[in-house]
From TrEMBL:
It comes from the Bacteria. Keywords: Hydrolase. This is HAD-hydrolase YfnB. Its EC number is 3.-.-.-. Pfam families: HAD_2. GO terms for molecular function: hydrolase activity. Gene3D superfamilies: HAD superfamily/HAD-like, Putative phosphatase, domain 2. InterPro entries: HAD-like_sf, HAD-SF_hydro_IA, HAD-SF_hydro_IA_YjjG/PynA, HAD_2, HAD_sf, PGP-like_dom2, Pyrimidine_5'-ntase_YjjG.
């Protein structure tokens, strides 16, 4: 017997390997502007980007600020003045060239679809970029709906992001819904705020945070839990 009917999947580093795609895209961006890509510059960008996304999730800044400022601040720290909006557009173009898929993701989605689950993508990010990446990975048709923060108007973990999904998909019994993702701060926290179960995809990571309902190290384990 199915425990859930509605499964909401995060995309980045849950179904699509964003880390691998990001690594490729950043190499291209850095080369375009003459910055050496190495561990130091990579971590420097990651720190700036993480800080901005953290502020976004806390509701302190808008997504427009994130996309405008992350490369502007990074390159300025390397004594290069750039148009942050233009560089971000170039970066997302490089991201869209990739279709890196997490291990077992396609098999999991295909099996869930064949067993009659209603599957949604619930992801933070830019609409065009996320849709292109899903299409390139041949995943789009496996979802019953794509909910992307830029298009929804709210970011996970904002309850309004999830309420939008529930209202649009006409989900009234929240006990039948589960959120699956790799981020404790957006996926799991968001699920907790709206009162639905969550499955944390740890991908081998460890945490003292036990706010998730269930934890899996591999995507294949999800079939047994839903």
């Amino acid at each position: 017997m199915k425990k859930y009917q509605y499964i909401i999947f995060d995309i980045d580093n849950t179904l699509l390997d964003f880390s691998r795609s990001e690594y490729y895209a950043l190499q291209k961006v850095f080369a375009t502007y003459g910055v050496v890509f190495n561990e130091n510059t990579f971590n420097q960008y990651k720190e700036i980007n993480h800080d901005l996304w953290e502020q976004l999730e806390d509701g302190k800044i808008s997504k427009e600020v994130v996309l405008k400022e992350r490369f502007k601040r990074f390159f300025l720290a390397n004594n290069i003045v750039v148009d942050g909006v233009l560089v971000d557009k170039q970066y997302r173009g490089f991201l869209e060239e990739r279709n890196d898929v997490m291990n077992e993701a396609m098999s999991l989605l295909t099996q869930l679809k064949s067993q009659g689950y209603t599957i949604f993508a619930g992801t933070n990010g830019v609409g065009q970029t996320q849709r292109k990446r899903l299409a390139s990975a041949n995943m789009t048709d496996l979802f019953d709906g794509l909910y992307i923060s830029e298009e929804v108007g709210f970011e996970k973990p904002d309850v309004r992001f999830f309420d939008y999904i529930f209202n649009d998909a006409r989900i009234t019994d929240l006990s039948k819904a589960v959120m699956i993702g790799d981020s404790l701060s957006s996926d799991i926290e968001g699920a907790n705020r709206v009162g639905i179960d969550s499955i944390w995809f740890s991908n081998g990571a460890e945490t003292s945070d036990k706010t998730y309902t269930k934890k899996v190290d591999n995507l294949s384990e999800i079939l047994e839990l839903v």
